[in-house]
From TrEMBL:
Chain segments carrying region Disordered: 1-41
Family under the similarity heading: Belongs to the sodium:neurotransmitter symporter (SNF) (TC 2.A.22) family. SLC6A6 subfamily.
Name of a matching Pfam family: SNF
Cross-referenced InterPro entries: Na/ntran_symport (IPR000175), Na/ntran_symport_taurine (IPR002434), SNS_sf (IPR037272)
Location in the cell: Cell membrane
Disulfide feature: C162-C171
Keyword flag Cytoplasm: no
Protein name: Transporter
Length: 619
C-alpha cells in the first residue's frame, strides 16, 4: 500500500504543476499575470461558437468530393469496414486528444507540447509546417470556385456548349458523344477517338486554367484567378482578424448554410431519373476489395484528412474553451456529424452522376471522378443537363465556397494561434496580432500565385500530393499518441481530463492512444511507402525527377521537425538523458527526488514499475 500511496503522491504533485489557479486561464502563471506580461487568453462566447467552428473546420470539401468517390472506388459499402476501424481506432481518439490537450493547457499547437512534453515540442512545429503549406494551396480551390460562381451569372453557362472562343474542333457536344462512334477511313474501323474532349473539360482546362504542357512551363499569371485568390484571402482575413470573437460569429453562416444547401441538392438529386443506379454504384458492396492494402490506406488517410487532425487547428480551437467544458461529449457528437456528412454527401453526388450517366448513355464509371475533377468538371456538367441549370450551379458553387471557406479560415486561425502563443507578450499587444495575420495572409497569397499561372495546376498537384499527404499526418499522429500515452502517461492525461469534465472517458480512448492508434498509423504509414507511385497529372503527364524531389522536400520539411527537436532538447540538456524525461522542472527536482524514495526500507523496487515515463513539464 505504501508504494501505491507514494505513486499517487507523485501523480498528484505532477498534476498540480499544470493545474490552473481558480478563475484564471489554465496554464497562465500568477506571476506572469501580475507583471502584465500578456493579457489573459480570450474564450469562446458560447458553446455553440466552439461547436460550429470545429464543425466548419473539418466538414469541408473532402467530405463532398473525396469520400463518396473513395467509397465507390474501394468496394462501395465494404469500404465502410476499414473506414469505421480507422474512425474509432484513430480519427476520433486523436481528435479528442488534440481538443482536450488544447483545453487543458490553454495553448496553441506548439506551446501545448512545450508545457506537456517538452522533448516532443517538434510535434507542434511539424503541425505548423503542414498547416502552413496546406493553407497556401487549399485556398486556390476556393479561387476556382469563386471564378465559377461569377461565370454562373451569364445568360448561358459557359461550359454548357462548344460555342466559345476557347473551344477547338475537338470539342464535342454530349448529344454527339452519346452512343456515337467516329469513322476513320484509313482502316475502316469504328472507334471512339481519344482526342475528343467534352465541352466541360475544355472550359476547365483551357479557359479557367489555361494549362500548359508541364511544370517546367510556368507561363503567365492568370489575373482573373489571381484576383479571385486575393478576394478569398481578404475574406479569410476579416473572418479571423479579431480572433475567436469574429470567428465564432462568422461560422454561424459558413458552417450551417452548406448543410442546408446539401440537403436541397440531395432532395433534387434523388428525384432525378437514373439516381437509383448512381446510388447503387456508390454503395454496392464488393468485399473482395478489402484484400487490397490500398483500400485500407485510402480509409486511413481519408479519416485523418476529414478530421483536420495533426494540423494544430483542433488544439488551438480547444485552447479557447473554458477549463471545465465537457469537450469529450461534444467531440463524440462532432465526430458523428462529420462522418454522417460524408456519407450523406455520397447520395447527393452519386444520384446526380447516375442521372448524368443515363443522359449520356454511358457507364457510371465513365463519369465518376474525385477531387477538383468532380467539383469543376463532372458536377457542373451534370447540372447543365438539369432544368434551371443556372440556379443549381449557383447553389452548388456557393455550397462549395462556404464548405471550403470555413475550413480555410479555421486552419489559418489555428496557424496564427500557434505562432502568437510562441511570443504572446509581443504579438498580443495593441494591433500587432491583426498586423501579423495580415502579413501571414499576404505572404501566403504571394506563394499561392504560383498556382494560378498557366503551369499552376502542376504546382497545386505537387503540394496536394506531398506537402500535406497522408504520410505526413500519420507520422505526426503516431508521435502525438506516443508523447501523451507513453511519455506523459495516459493515466496522467485521464486524470487531467477527469479534472476538467468531472468523469473519466471511456477506456477505449486510452487504449487507442496507447496501442490501437500507433499500430494503425505505423501499418498505414509503411503500406503507403510500399505502395508509393510517383505523381502523375491526369494519369498521363509524368513529373520530372527534380519536381518529385521538391515534393519529397515539402513532405520531409514537416516530418523532420520531430526527431530534430528531440535531438536539440537532448543536446541542450545539462544533465543526463533521464533528467530530460523527468516529471519536474529543475526547481522542483529535490521534491521529486524526495517523493521517489521508497517508504518501505525493505522495498527493492520490483513491485513498483511505472507504466509510463513522465516528462518534464515547464510552466
Amino acid at each position: 500500500m505504501a508504494q501505491k500511496e507514494k505513486l499517487q503522491c507523485l501523480k498528484d504533485f505532477h498534476k498540480d504543476i499544470l493545474k490552473p489557479s481558480p478563475g484564471k486561464s489554465p496554464g497562465t502563471r500568477p506571476e506572469d499575470e501580475a507583471e502584465g506580461k500578456h493579457p489573459q487568453r480570450e474564450k469562446w462566447a458560447s458553446k455553440l461558437d466552439f461547436l460550429l467552428s470545429v464543425a466548419g473546420g473539418f466538414v469541408g470539401l473532402g467530405n463532398v468530393w473525396r469520400f463518396p468517390y473513395l467509397c465507390y472506388k474501394n468496394g462501395g459499402g465494404a469500404f465502410l469496414i476499414p473506414y469505421f476501424i480507422f474512425l474509432f481506432g484513430g480519427g476520433l481518439p486523436v481528435f479528442f486528444l488534440e481538443v482536450a490537450l488544447g483545453q487543458f493547457t490553454s495553448e496553441g499547437g506548439i506551446t501545448c507540447w512545450e508545457k506537456l512534453c517538452p522533448i516532443f515540442t517538434g510535434i507542434g512545429y511539424a503541425s505548423i509546417v503542414i498547416v502552413s503549406l496546406l493553407n497556401i494551396y487549399y485556398i486556390v480551390i476556393l479561387a476556382w470556385g469563386l471564378y465559377y460562381l461569377f461565370q454562373c451569372f451569364q445568360p448561358e453557362l459557359p461550359w454548357a456548349s462548344c460555342n466559345n472562343k476557347w473551344n477547338t474542333e475537338n470539342c464535342v457536344e454530349d448529344t454527339f458523344r452519346k452512343n456515337k462512334t467516329l469513322w476513320v477511313a484509313a482502316n475502316a474501323t469504328n472507334f471512339t477517338s481519344p482526342c475528343l474532349t467534352s465541352k466541360h473539360s475544355f472550359h476547365h482546362r483551357r479557359n479557367v486554367l489555361s494549362i500548359s504542357d508541364g511544370i517546367e512551363q510556368v507561363g503567365h499569371i492568370k489575373w482573373d484567378l489571381a484576383l479571385c485568390l486575393l478576394a478569398v484571402w481578404v475574406i479569410c482575413f476579416f473572418c479571423i482578424w479579431k480572433g475567436v470573437k469574429s470567428t465564432g460569429k462568422v461560422v454561424y453562416v459558413t458552417a450551417t448554410f452548406p448543410f442546408v444547401m446539401l440537403i436541397v441538392l440531395l432532395v433534387r438529386g434523388v428525384t432525378l431519373p437514373g439516381a437509383a443506379e448512381g446510388i447503387k454504384f456508390y454503395l454496392y458492396p464488393n468485399v473482395t476489395r478489402l484484400g487490397d492494402p490500398e483500400v485500407w490506406i485510402d480509409a486511413g488517410t481519408q479519416i485523418f484528412f476529414s478530421y483536420a487532425i495533426c494540423l494544430g487547428a483542433m488544439t488551438s480551437l480547444g485552447s479557447y474553451n473554458k477549463y471545465k467544458y465537457n469537450c469529450y461529449r461534444d467531440c463524440l457528437l462532432l465526430g458523428g456529424l462529420n462522418s454522417a456528412t460524408s456519407f450523406v454527401s455520397g447520395f447527393a453526388i452519386f444520384s446526380v452522376l447516375g442521372f448524368m450517366a443515363q443522359e449520356q448513355g454511358v457507364d457510371i464509371a465513365d463519369v465518376a471522378e474525385s477531387g477538383p475533377g468532380l467539383a469543376f468538371i463532372a458536377y457542373p456538367k451534370a447540372v447543365s443537363m438539369m432544368p434551371l441549370p443556372t440556379f443549381w450551379a449557383i447553389l452548388f458553387f456557393i455550397m462549395l465556397l462556404l464548405l471550403g471557406l470555413d475550413s480555410q479560415f479555421v486552419e489559418v486561425e489555428g496557424q496564427i494561434t500557434s505562432l502568437v502563443d510562441l511570443y504572446p507578450s509581443f504579438l498580443r499587444k495593441g494591433y500587432r496580432r491583426e498586423i501579423f495575420i495580415a502579413i501571414v495572409c499576404f505572404v501566403s497569397y504571394l506563394l499561392g500565385l504560383t498556382m494560378v499561372t498557366e503551369g499552376g495546376m502542376y504546382v497545386f498537384q505537387l503540394f496536394d500530393y506531398y506537402a500535406a499527404s497522408g504520410v505526413c499526418l500519420l507520422w505526426v499522429a503516431f508521435f502525438e499518441c506516443i508523447a501523451v500515452a507513453w511519455v506523459y502517461g495516459a493515466d496522467n492525461f485521464y486524470d487531467a481530463i477527469e479534472e476538467m469534465i468531472g468523469y473519466r472517458p471511456n477506456p477505449w480512448m486510452k487504449w487507442s492512444w496507447t496501442v490501437v492508434t500507433p499500430f494503425l498509423c505505423v501499418g498505414c504509414f509503411v503500406f503507403s511507402l510500399v505502395k508509393y507511385t510517383p505523381l502523375r497529372y491526369n494519369k498521363v503527364y509524368e513529373y520530372p525527377d527534380w519536381s518529385i524531389g521538391v515534393g519529397w522536400t515539402l513532405a520531409l520539411t514537416s516530418m523532420i521537425c520531430i526527431p530534430m527537436v528531440v535531438v536539440i532538447k537532448i543536446i541542450q540538456s545539462d544533465g543526463p538523458l533521464i533528467e530530460v524525461t523527468s516529471s519536474c522542472p529543475q526547481e522542483y527536482q529535490p521534491k521529486c527526488n524526495e517523493l521517489a524514495q521508497p517508504l518501505d526500507p525493505n522495498w527493492n523496487g520490483s513491485s513498483m514499475k511505472p507504466t509510463h515515463t513522465i516528462v518534464e513539464t515547464m510552466m
